[in-house]
Sequence to fold (420 residues):
Amino acid sequence: MKVVIKNTLADTLSFLTHTKKRDRLFAKALDLPMPKGTMNTLSAALHPAKQDMVIQSIIQETADTKTYRLVMSDAKMHPAFFRAGQYISCVFQVDKSTASRPFSLSSTPRQTLDEGFYDITIRKTDPGFISSFVYDSWKVGTQILCTAPTGDFYYQELRDSRSVICLAGGSGVTPFKSMIPDILKDYPDMQVILFHGAVLADQFIFSDYFKNLQEENPSQFTYIPVCSDPVEATIEAADWQGESGLISVSLIEKVLKSTIPEKNLEACTLFISGPPAMEKYLEDELKNTRIQKRRIRTESSESQKSKVGNADSTSVPTITHSLIVHMNTHTHTIQANEHETVLVALERAGLKPPSLCRSGTCGWCRSRLISGTVAKAPNTHGTRSADDKFGYFHPCSEFPASDAEIYIPDDPIINREEKG
Fold:
């Protein structure tokens, strides 16, 4: 009698034949570890988890702003490459707290490739205690633990217009010192306008650099410093002849008409980098234009300290919540102020949570909300609706709104440093 085996049973028997063949091949194989693939080696070089760097030199830009030049601690190593406009995050040990802060790179990718350094420019009066700590404690020779460059604030040829308008406020100009010369070098047919707003006339970081860049590229680049309060500035502001007030849509359109008359605002890509108040002001200004949302690129700053919006948090009663934190196979109970992000509360308690952008955009600190409620910071752009639905949140941009229980993933950067 002839038996015909079909369908599922035949597939099962065929699978058993393959497993026996696999076992024979395994038995004949050499007992040696697999060599590291070429692409794995290249990926590790381009995107290292951490970089051990040292301050090579310090440049005083303005009375309260310094540029720190970082090189690799191991002279045989080379800093990871980046796209102009990206940032690195530096890890700090302040008292018992470990924290990280993102800093835009103010050097160009070519300088990193040819000369092997990063420049980061920090203003002492920027919000938060880290800027003052850096300004006062970083010296030539100070060792710095950094991440690889990251971020999506950069020019993308397939996405962005050939006419670019950069809107900077205060130290928010730093990524444009990297981005603009890189664009001018790679795209000789492009035109770029930089509006840089500052309160006082002596606070324009890199003003001489941008003036020289304009002289060298008169048909491509226009630099427009805008002083919001020249009357209250230093003596040199008495002769202020530039634009005054705020960077408004009417000012942008006036300059655009005189420099690139064939273009209207809707045909340009806007890059915005500055404090939250400036970002909110420009968001309201641009609502009345027809420019598409995809043409507006924003370098989000660290989430505001208070979720109360523009209100002065010192006038709001302080409410403290208890957080049960599961992290690093341990459980901690900490206290969190309602007007500080969950990330800040974790750092203040001496824990070592993961963080990169500190603005809710990169997802590096994405954590699980087991119970309780949190509130998003205003103008948070990086979270997904699926995260809200399934109980995930970004500690860097959300505030405790009740007692809560949370799960925080390990930070691979800090953990690798501690394990050597």
Q: What stands out?
A: The chain has three domains: 45-146, 163-299, 313-419. The two ends are 69 Å apart (CA to CA).
